[in-house]
Design brief:
Layout: H1 14-29, E1 37-41, H2 62-71, H3 82-91, E2 94-98, H4 110-114, H5 118-128, E3 132-135, H6 138-150, H7 168-179
Parallel strand pairs: 1-2, 1-3
């Protein structure tokens, strides 16, 4: 390094930090006092305007609607009702978190991206003290289940696929089995 020059400071993507903080703040609004059912998903979507807890998601809100269909049958399934549905999930003790706090960079290597986040997931689970845990998406299960089970946590043994790309029926069946205690 030339004399008088400063070492390079890592660049922080402030927009990514802002989006992460906005997602966290929105999720906190719907966090139950006592978490009965903790859903652990993979990661937030890479689109800044989409997230499980954002009320105005116009498209690709597959996980939210699949969870609502399973847990709140007969509920009004329109976008206009999403805030009320989120409140109903909260009131039933349901809370969703992501294993990785930021979007997946390389979907073909998602396990490599997810595994380093498992220790932090264990810490978050310890804080939330859920009665039950369901892991959503096969790579989430593969990355996290061994550590959660080894830690004696109340995690379902059922591998639940993500409810998109033709997996909706498989999600419905697997999620139902997980809810039933599988």
């Amino acid at each position: 390094m030339p004399a008088g020059s400063q070492p390079a400071t890592p660049r922080v993507d402030t927009s990514a930090v802002e989006v992460r903080e906005r997602r966290a703040a929105t999720a906190r609004r719907y966090q139950p006092e006592h978490v009965q059912l903790l859903l652990v998903a993979q990661a937030p979507p890479d689109a800044d305007d989409r997230y499980f807890y954002f009320p105005g998601v116009a498209q690709h809100d597959w996980l939210f609607w699949a969870v609502v269909r399973a847990l709140l049958p007969g509920a009004g399934l329109t976008r206009d009702h999403k805030p009320a549905l989120l409140e109903q999930l909260r009131d039933r003790g349901v809370f969703l978190i992501d294993l990785k706090p930021d979007p997946i960079v390389n979907s073909r290597a998602s396990l490599l991206e997810l595994r380093p986040h498992v220790p932090a997931l264990l810490d978050r689970i310890a804080e939330l003290q859920p009665e039950r845990i369901i892991l959503i998406k096969i790579d989430v299960y593969d990355a996290a289940y061994p550590a959660l089970a080894a830690g004696g946590l109340p995690v379902s043994k059922v591998r639940v696929p993500f409810p998109s790309h033709g997996q909706q029926e498989k999600f419905r069946v697997a999620f139902g089995r997980a809810l039933a205690g599988g």
